[in-house]
Design a protein that fits this description.
The protein is an alpha/beta fold. The protein contains eleven helices and 15 strands. Helix content is 40%, strand content 23%. α2 crosses α3, α5 packs across α6 (102-110) and α6 runs parallel beside α7.
């Protein structure tokens, strides 16, 4: 079992039982107790758990649903590579919009922050990740969607009308040459459309399995993206079709973002 799969199972058990025990997990996974402790330390560091003597409990000081947190572990390595690569594309932007989704959350961990940078986001999770860093962070407000912890509705849309963004960084549920950028929620898609319409450049973060997929709500045509950052799992025909529209596709590789990873580690 891969470490990321093991950690996902740990989160699932905490979500169900509210606590776990190292010895029980070691037997269940067929690994040493030291391996399980390392997994727990990693999950605690990322804010998912609170370590206790002999195990761990749900992080009661954090209100995010553990099942949502567990989704962040799916393809976590690829999402980190995408985020680190995209962080180098922000340039000298001073007004930055961050959308929603687990890949955007990874981006929030690596974005180079500066005192003159303002970041506006629709995500409660992203705002919490940026809130303790030396950057001006603003959240749209409005109605909070219960499952994804995103700001939606007329108040969020009205707030967006106050800003112009140098760069918007968004995730998608699907992306294709035919249907463009799509999302699962009409309300989230509406907020994304409004944000992209007020941005000079758009960086789309999309795991390879999102290519060729189309969710129910259209955010905009593929050409609304200035650049799409993805991993190596992109179907060649779909990539070619999107590039034929004039959209740049950047594939993140382990070698490319190494320097950014080191920089991010130094900021953490």
């Amino acid at each position: 079992m891969l470490a990321v799969d093991r950690r996902l199972r740990i989160l699932e058990q905490v979500a169900e039982d509210q606590s776990i025990h190292v010895s029980d997990l070691a037997v269940r996974f067929g690994v040493s107790e030291m391996t399980v402790r390392r997994d727990i330390r990693r999950l605690e560091r990322d804010g998912f758990l609170k370590q206790t003597y002999g195990g761990a409990t749900a992080h009661l000081t954090r209100s995010f649903d553990l099942s949502f947190d567990a989704r962040a572990l799916h393809s976590a390595r690829e999402k980190r590579l995408i985020a680190m690569t995209a962080s180098a594309l922000v340039g000298d932007a001073r007004m930055l919009y961050l959308g929603i989704g687990t890949t955007v959350e990874q981006f929030a961990r690596y974005v180079p922050v500066r005192p003159d940078l303002t970041i506006v986001t629709a995500s409660v999770t992203v705002a919490s990740l940026l809130g303790t860093r030396p950057v001006r962070t603003m959240i749209l407000g409005g109605t909070v969607e219960h499952e994804e912890l995103t700001c939606i509705g007329p108040v969020a849309l009205a707030t967006l009308q106050r800003f112009r963004f140098d760069v918007a960084v968004v995730g998608v549920a699907g992306i294709s040459a035919r249907w463009g950028l799509t999302d699962l929620s009409h309300e989230d898609a509406e907020v994304s459309r409004a944000a992209l319409a007020r941005s000079d450049r758009t960086i789309v973060l999309a795991h390879g399995d999102k290519f060729g997929m189309a969710a129910s709500s259209v955010v905009g045509p593929a050409t609304v993206a200035t650049v799409i950052v993805t991993d190596g799992g992109v179907p060649a025909d779909e990539r070619a079709a999107i590039e034929a529209l004039g959209v740049e596709v950047v594939v993140a590789t382990p070698a490319a973002p190494g320097a950014h990873a080191a920089t991010a580690a130094g900021r953490a």
